[in-house]
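Fill in residues.
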């Protein structure tokens, strides 16, 4: 990477109190100093902020505060300048235009973070955690992201790689120095428990990763039931807003209504589906087909029944359709006369109209998906889908090694699978990642980050 000075707006586009324009590179301080009417920035210490004006050929651009971060104590380990100007896209754009006019280059998406990675300030997992912090949608997901920033994912992966490396090193010594008397001969049976133990570690990490993925991405949740059982009312009660239209007319919800809900740190990606029943109404039938597709994709089914009505044929069809899914059966309208007799597992009684039973529903969802795992050591929780996929692939390589041991293969053949697993784990922290992969990942960052 060259050391040209880059510039970009680092704050969101739109009107605000301030906008921040960031520069990084060898000439960042000198470049800003050329157009800064205030203290000589080339003589000020790092980690300081200074008042002044930006001028373009004696024409004032804006009244600003300029922060100076000198290398290597900056986000990129280069000289970094952050210009705090007045909010608004036009003002910030004029500042960027002024910087470009004086020799800066426009930053690519994620280029500031990439420079921090390439200069060794952060590892690959910490770089990805930057975006996780930005996209965090709950306290729990923010906690996981901050743990990533602290380097706990890096430490976990390095621990796995070190354990693998120890086994690989033992094999290497046996292959390269068989004549040494003090080197214990390493047989397949002696390496078997080491590989088995490693697979056990991978299994534990992947099991906790399911919880991490839920914390990070939320639970895709479908609210289903016959028309007019109160699905939309429950959605509105959970969201604490009237997002879905509620009437006494059957079939009112004719499409998919979506929303998100934070339950104690767990996000539900809610989908209120059209009521499922046989219908000759073409528009309603399309909604019903969509609802059936949603059921297949959903991780959680909230199946709503009417306390005031007996089970119908359609109800029984839905019970059969969802029997192998994680589901909670909601007996709604308990404020009305009871006509429904049941002994369903995972059932909650509610009155969406009177907001009764919401706490019980929220607790049931948390108990079903996290099992108290959110109180575990966050250092052992992986949530990034890329990391999970790589760990699964590395585990497969270890299982291939286990099979080779069972088949009596030569130990140097087993070593190939172990090295594959070691190399795959390196992709997570960026030690064995290709340039193309780096470019692809950092291109998903926003400008100025």
């Amino acid at each position: 990477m060259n050391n040209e000075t880059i510039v970009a707006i680092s704050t969101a586009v739109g009107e605000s109190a301030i906008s921040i324009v960031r520069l990084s590179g060898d000439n960042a301080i000198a470049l800003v100093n050329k157009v800064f009417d205030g203290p000589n920035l080339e003589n000020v210490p790092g980690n300081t902020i200074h008042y002044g004006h930006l001028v373009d050929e004696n024409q004032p651009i804006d009244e600003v505060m300029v922060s100076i971060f000198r290398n290597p104590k900056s986000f990129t380990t280069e000289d970094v300048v952050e210009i705090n100007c007045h909010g608004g896209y036009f003002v910030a754009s004029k500042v960027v235009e002024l910087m470009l006019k004086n020799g800066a280059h426009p930053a690519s998406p994620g280029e500031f973070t990439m420079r921090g990675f390439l200069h060794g300030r952060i590892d690959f997992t910490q770089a990805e955690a930057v975006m996780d912090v930005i996209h965090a949608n709950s306290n729990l997901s923010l906690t996981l992201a901050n743990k990533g920033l602290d380097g706990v994912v890096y430490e976990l992966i390095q621990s796995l790689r070190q354990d693998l490396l120890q086994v690989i090193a033992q094999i290497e010594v046996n292959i390269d120095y068989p004549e040494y008397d003090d080197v214990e001969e390493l047989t397949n049976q002696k390496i078997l428990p080491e590989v088995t133990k490693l697979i056990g570690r991978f299994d534990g990490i992947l099991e906790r990763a399911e919880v991490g993925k839920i914390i990070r991405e939320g639970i895709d949740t479908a609210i289903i039931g016959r028309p007019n059982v109160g699905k939309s009312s429950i959605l509105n009660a959970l969201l604490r807003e009237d997002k879905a239209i509620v009437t006494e007319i059957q079939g009112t919800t004719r499409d998919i209504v979506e929303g998100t809900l934070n339950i104690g740190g767990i996000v539900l990606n809610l989908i209120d589906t059209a009521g499922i029943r046989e219908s000759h109404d073409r528009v309603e039938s399309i909604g019903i087909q969509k609802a059936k597709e949603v059921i297949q994709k959903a991780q959680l089914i909230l199946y709503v029944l009417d306390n005031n009505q007996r089970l119908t044929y359609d109800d029984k069809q839905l019970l059969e359709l969802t029997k192998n899914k994680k589901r909670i059966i909601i007996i709604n309208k308990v404020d009305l006369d009871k006509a429904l007799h049941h002994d369903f597992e995972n059932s909650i009684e509610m009155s969406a109209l009177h907001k009764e039973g919401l706490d019980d529903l929220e607790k049931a969802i948390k108990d079903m998906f996290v099992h108290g795992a959110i109180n575990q050591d966050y250092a052992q929780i992986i949530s990034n889908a890329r990391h999970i996929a790589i760990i699964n692939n590395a585990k497969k390589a270890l299982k291939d090694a286990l099979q080779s041991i069972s088949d009596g293969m030569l130990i140097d053949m087993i070593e190939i699978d172990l090295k594959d697993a070691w190399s795959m784990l390196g992709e997570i922290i960026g030690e064995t990642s290709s340039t193309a992969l780096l470019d692809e990942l950092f291109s998903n960052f926003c400008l100025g980050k």
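The first helix runs from residue 28 to 34.
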